Amino acid sequence: MPVCEVCGERPAKYVCQNCGRLVCESCVTPEGLLCPECSTLLDRREEIEDSQFNVFSGFLNPINLFFMSVLLIFIGFFCIMLGSITGGRLEGLGAIIMIGPIPIIVGAGPLSTEVILIGVAVTIIAVILFVLSLYERRRSLSS
Predict the structure, then answer these.
(1) Maximum Cα–Cα distance for the chain, whole Å?
(2) Do 8 and 26 contact (CB within 8 A), yes or no?
(3) What's the pLDDT band for 133 if we cut at 50, 70, 90?
(4) Pure H helices in 19-111
């Protein structure tokens, strides 16, 4: 029976799945049947990959995005409540629906142009934030 290529003492019963070296029962790692050297290299590679995929560090992390969305919802409720309290009438209506990169813009009423312009501005800001998050992710992956 062949001898273990790591310790050189015990008979080898396994073959490393990464480098193909003969390994005994004492030297083989049970996770993936690897020799000790390949196991440490794989652990280091996984640590590096985990640190590279941490794209949510900074302003665009999920917790900040959650609190910003809740804040926007409350601002919307406040605007609707303020409009109903002051007896505001519906002067204009506008909507922007984004289906992929294609915007569908709909408006009605005398002030629909202003409402649509505000919607276009908000949409442009959202697209800019999306592109910035992609740029941040690519930058963190390349470093």
Answers:
(1) 92
(2) no
(3) confident
(4) 36-52, 62-85
